[in-house]
């Protein structure tokens, strides 16, 4: 009997010990308050892929300031994949490519900071980045200290080569590592929405990608030979349903870097920019500033549209109606204002004749409403920057193929 009791006691202690050893839960904790409005800036990937270098970055920083982009709110310069050498050094640290960046990464970052701008880098949760450079798996705390020492301000963290990795844990570990390193760094989760990041990303990151990569077209799917797809901007807008309630100040749904100025026409660029502003997406330009047309610059620096994107409520817009390819998107703004975008999805011109009184707005996710039978709103055309009547009368206009009209309603 004594042996039996002892055996049971030891078994109980062993079981208790194992259970105690698994009760600790990793607490996540991003730097709070770094992105209370959607981040604005520039990223190298859409135009340059891995063909990046010191000269291009400095020229981009210079033009960001001289062109008025910085004054309009664009303040992050983010180097995407391809900034590092193919191997870590003998200490296991990442090495900026010495051919691409002969002056060193710290000197380049200091140059960008001297312009009043902020600087970001890229890495990946996997063993290798998407382009085959050293990933961060197993080196999270070491890499976070490296970024803090460089004094970066933004980290884009991708999801390639991650077989067997749990996404919330991987991103949570990197978030904790950044916090432990001590430098406030905006953390951008580039997980593509594969594991529904909007359900778990808020305590971990400041923004998260909701889709695979964007492609410079209105509504296409571009199929890559490697059996994956890139998406036209309207495909991304429509890709995820019912996730707007997860987005807001310091935790944004990220619809990807913009393709404004890349291969589409000015009308489609205008629609692309309007929709990113309506969706409260981060506004990260992806074009070559050195070749930017005055039309592209005017689109990217439209102060009225940027104000819609940067509105302090931080609420993502939604589709109010769609009839024969003519869509109406709405976004609640502070002070009782609304942004409304009329979008022509078709290949032919459309005539708008919108009866406000028959189309009340009700935001079921956030509780905002606009009843045009009870309240009259002034109308301001945000592309023409002029008044356009009131909601007492139907809104009428001609709308070209793939074009938008964006207005602000002011009670």
Unreliable sequence segments: 1-19
The CATH architecture of the largest domain would be Alpha-Beta Barrel
Strand content: 15-25%
Task: Specify the biggest β-sheet.
Answer: 8 strands, parallel
Q: Reading side by side through the largest sheet, how are the strands ordered?
A: 9-6-5-4-3-2-1-10
Average pLDDT level: 94
Alpha plus pi helix count: 11
End-to-end Cα distance:
85 Å
Large-scale geometry: globular
* Domains (count): 2
The protein's oligomeric status is: single chain
Q: What share of residues is helical?
A: 25-40%
Task: Specify the CATH class of the largest domain.
Answer: Alpha Beta
The secondary-structure class comes to: alpha/beta
Radius of gyration: 24 Å
Number of strands: 20
What CATH calls the topology of the largest domain is TIM Barrel
Q: Please identify which CATH superfamily of the largest domain we are dealing with.
A: Aldolase class I
Structure report:
This protein has two domains: 40-309, TIM Barrel; 318-410, Sandwich (Immunoglobulin-like). The chain contains eleven helices and 20 strands. The strands form five sheets. Strands 9-6-5-4-3-2-1-10 form an eight-stranded parallel sheet. The longest helix has 19 residues, at 2-20. Strand 17 and strand 18 (386-390) form a beta hairpin. Helix 6 crosses helix 7, helix 9 runs parallel beside helix 10 (294-300) and helix 9 packs parallel to helix 11. The protein is an alpha/beta fold and 411 residues long.
């Amino acid at each position: 009997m004594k042996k039996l009791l002892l055996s049971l006691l030891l078994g109980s202690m062993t079981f208790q010990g194992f259970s105690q050893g698994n009760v600790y839960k990793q607490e996540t904790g991003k730097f709070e308050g770094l992105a209370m409005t959607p981040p604005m800036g520039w990223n190298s990937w859409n135009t340059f892929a891995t063909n990046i270098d010191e000269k291009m970055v400095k020229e981009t920083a210079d033009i960001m300031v001289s062109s008025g982009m910085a004054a309009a709110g664009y303040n992050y310069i983010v180097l995407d994949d391809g900034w590092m050498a193919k191997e870590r050094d003998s200490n296991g640290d990442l090495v900026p490519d010495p051919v691409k960046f002969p002056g060193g990464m710290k000197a380049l970052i200091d140059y960008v900071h001297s312009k009043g701008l902020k600087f970001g880098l890229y890495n990946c949760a996997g063993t290798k980045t998407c382009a085959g450079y050293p990933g961060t798996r197993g080196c999270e705390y070491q890499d976070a200290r490296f970024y803090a020492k460089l004094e970066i301000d933004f980290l884009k963290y991708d999801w390639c080569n991650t077989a067997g990795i749990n996404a919330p844990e991987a991103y949570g570990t990197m978030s904790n590592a950044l916090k432990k390193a001590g430098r406030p760094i905006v953390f951008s989760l580039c997980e593509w929405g594969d594991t529904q990041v909007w359900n778990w990303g808020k305590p971990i990151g400041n923004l998260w990608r909701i889709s695979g990569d964007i492609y410079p077209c209105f509504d296409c799917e571009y199929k890559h030979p490697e059996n994956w797809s890139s998406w036209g901007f309207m495909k991304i807008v429509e890709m995820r349903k019912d996730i707007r309630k997860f987005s807001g100040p310091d935790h944004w749904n990220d619809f990807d870097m913009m393709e404004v100025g890349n291969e589409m026409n000015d009308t489609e660029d205008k629609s692309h920019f309007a929709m990113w502003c309506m969706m409260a997406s981060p506004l990260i330009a992806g074009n070559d500033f050195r070749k930017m047309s005055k039309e592209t610059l005017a689109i990217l620096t439209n102060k009225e549209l940027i104000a819609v994107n940067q509105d302090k409520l931080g609420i993502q817009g939604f589709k109010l109606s769609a009839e024969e390819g003519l869509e109406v998107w709405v976004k609640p703004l502070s002070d009782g204002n609304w942004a409304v975008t009329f979008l022509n999805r078709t290949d032919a011109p459309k005539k708008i004749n919108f009866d406000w009184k028959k189309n009340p707005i009700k935001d079921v996710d956030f509780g905002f409403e606009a009843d045009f039978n009870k309240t009259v709103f002034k109308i301001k055309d945000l592309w023409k920057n002029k008044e356009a009547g009131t909601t007492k009368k139907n809104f009428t206009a001609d709308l070209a193929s793939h074009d938008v009209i964006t207005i602000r309603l002011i009670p």
